[in-house]
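Re: folding output
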Amino acid sequence: MKIVSESLTMVGTAFGLVAALAWNEAIKKLIEQFIPKGKGVLSLFLYAILVTLAAVIITTRLGRIKERIGE
């Protein structure tokens, strides 16, 4: 039973990675629309900052939800 549980966890993680990569591309294209092409490094740093902030906020909120449900 543990093997099935771990396999399901790995499959879920793989789908999460695929979704993250899709969002990565979508967000990069969105930023490219607002920042001129000549500002490549600036746009990469802006993208990194925005993604980091989103990750911190989402992780924090998920942690609070997990505490509320008692896991």
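--- second protein (sequence, then structure) ---
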Amino acid sequence: MALGIYFMHGGFTPEKYAQAISQLEGAGQGSPDGRTYHFALESDGAIQVFDVWESQAKFDAFGAVLVPILTDLGVHLGEPMVATVHNVIVG
């Protein structure tokens, strides 16, 4: 069962997002196993992220790499909203 995971982190600027993506790519996690969609949304100078993951376990494995990167960048981590994906329509 797929999960939709939505993040709103404090201080997550477009510049910090770009740095996080670069560091994730350097760690071999630019396209992590189990993530099927990634959306980065910008609103009022802050990045919000919506991802779709195959399972909680695969998301948790990615989080072990992601969280230290965001912490080092000074991003204030918020609790993600997690929901079961009910339907996806492409186009």
